[in-house]
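Issue: copy button drops trailing tokens. Both records pasted manually instead:
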Amino acid sequence: PVCDPYTFHISPSGFGSVNEIPAAGGVSNPNFGVTPPPWGGTDMGCLLAGELNSSWLKVTITGSGSLGFVFGANGTQLGFYDWSMWQYTGPATCNAIANNTLAPVRCVWNATSIGGTGLANTIPAGGSAGNFGPQLNVTAGQQYIICLSNYSFVNTNVILDFLGTAIVDCAPVVLPVALTNLHGRQVGKVNWIEWETYSEINNSGFTVQRSIDGSTWQDLGFVEGNGTTQIDHSYSFPDPTAPERIVCYYRLKQFDTNGVFRYSEEIELYKESYDDAIYPNPAGDWFCLSNYSDEHITVEVFDLSGKKVTSYLLNGAYQQKMDISNLSSGIYLVDVTRPFSREQSKLIIQR
């Protein structure tokens, strides 16, 4: 995290020439060539040769406005300080950059090795227009990460000064509610997202969002807030449509009563495949149902006319025999009912 001003050290040590972003020409590390960047200017690209000896900085916006900054102002730039900047919404952002799916909001491949580099609508004294991009309009609550390349292998301190009307702070972004214990868990075939608040101010509620790749988000549903309160509240939201055997990312989009919104941190949840194993099948005088969850479930056996012929209540993880010696040979349906789901399987009794 960086404040204003911020000084940090760069050197040729560490990971050296290991590239932490994709090669030039992709989504996360574009090459503009004769086509100007989408934000204007004449920049050729971002980190065209790949970043080297990089430093990663996180910028937190606490006051909306126009964001500008300068690395190496007032003659302190020593070497080429190429850099690229992306909006940051949580750890999945880094995966999106590495997977070449998140475009930068600004970047500069330096034209000169002196005079500073960054974002400035008015080029600082001694600076080159080829080292600067236009300032960025930002909103309180947003975060950005910057990858600064030490392309010239220098060993020095870098001074970062912020310009413009936006306010930058080292403090972490917080929701206008005191949010805590955001987590996810799988219950049967349903992912449950759960969180708590211990105070809320003008809280309209939360939109729960899910992402598979960490960059594209889908609204799942809205949970009403409690306005203004100093009492603890617990919230939960079910996601029965999450794909199995894959990591899903979740976050909350919290809305004030005036429509202003902010995002929570992101969490990850891996959804196991929960297929109940009935064996043996065909069965004789008994069958087993295997599961290793901690749920309370009901097992009901029906004949093909729909008549329930027997049932069992299982508590917690189980792998037990169920007596069906009183049933005739034939085909039956076995219903497994969990707290939030129900599955049906075919059972053949054969003697």
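Record 2 (pasted manually too):
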Amino acid sequence: MRLFFTAFPSILCIVFSLQARSQKTVELWLTNADKSALFQKQKTLPGFHKGVHDSAFIEVNEKITYQSIDGFGFALTGGSAMHIIRMSTEARSSLLNEIFGTAKNSIGVSYLRVSIGASDLNESVFSYDDLPAGTSDTSMQHFDLGPDKKDVIPVLKEIISIYPGIKILASPWSPPSWMKTNNDTRGGRLKPEYYKAYVKYFLKYIQGMKAEGITIDAITVQNEPLHPGNNPSLLMTAPDEAEFIKNYLGPAFKAANVNTKIILYDHNADRPDYPIFILNDPQAYKYIDGSGFHLYGGKIEALSIVHDKFPEKNLYFTEQMVVDRPHDTGISMVWPVTHIIVGATRNWCRNVLLWNLAADPSFKPFTDRGGCPSCQGAVTIDGDQVTRNTAYYTIAHASKFVRPGSLRIASSEADKLPNVAFKTPDGKKVLIVVNGSQQMKKFDIVYKNELLTAKLEAGAVGTYIW
């Protein structure tokens, strides 16, 4: 008996030691540039161990935390919804569960962007209050979500049934043309005499979607306000947007007890002065949740300029087109993961949204007079056939593991190894790493003074979870 009781504590120590080590084994999901792995789970890596790193290393420190994460996803354009709703019931259900579900074979998209009225990726241009020339409707008596009821709204309802917690951002491309200086869906400016009517338009939209069971978490005031060349589009300068927010939209949302967040700007990183100008206005500032950015111009680091000046205001990455390179037999993940997944979150964004969810093999639909003829979807839909493209895998490397409520945590920079780390609500650590070099890179992941040796082929992306 004495021998048994003497040995028992040692046995327990061995068991607990093995359990502690097994909890530090690392899961790896990999995409290789040659497509030998496409967001594919690899054999579990051995646990962290004591040692001294003698190569490139990335140190993860969960004690240093940054912004909370709302989610990762795509724009559900009218064109995306049109293709999805035309699929057979079985094929549509399978695709939506794969994209928005949280099961083993799903990628867990948790954030969507939709357009208020048509975007340039609709078959035709419309608003929710289109009228004959020379007439107006300041009381919004003719407001009707009608065009979206045939595709966007039913697809959103099916998505919500799969993932009820999904966040939805809504952005207008243009007000009704009768509100504009040029009476056209493309370009022009919002007439000041219709500011109040346009506020009612926003409220009708939010309330109408709510009646359909769809909560709009946030709106941007205007998509790409400095690019009036799309159809539809609107020119809205920073002084105009500031005036609209502080004297019309903000007070109206407050009076109506609307909790939908107001996000300003929603355009490229080359003009951080635009949101800064508006946030410098104390009357506008109080109604604003944060600023939205795209990356068709400028550098992603510019977002930190806005954060450093207004650290209490949020940042969002609201749009970027990511497409397969023509005639490329491999997959080019380095730029989008480096600049968008890593870059946007390292520069304080709470979300990442790519443009757009779905198109057909010809990148249709798109509008005339400025619609986008090269906007490939994250998935290409041809009847019931689905092809997954670069944008799909770019988002998947984050969305499946970095769930809403995760915190970005510190991770050190390493040469040619762009990376970002997160701590999930259930305590897991997620590290996304890109090999941006032209050769295989070996590196150590350092965590709590222990290390794990890893390697990535040139152009590869790895998501490590422990």
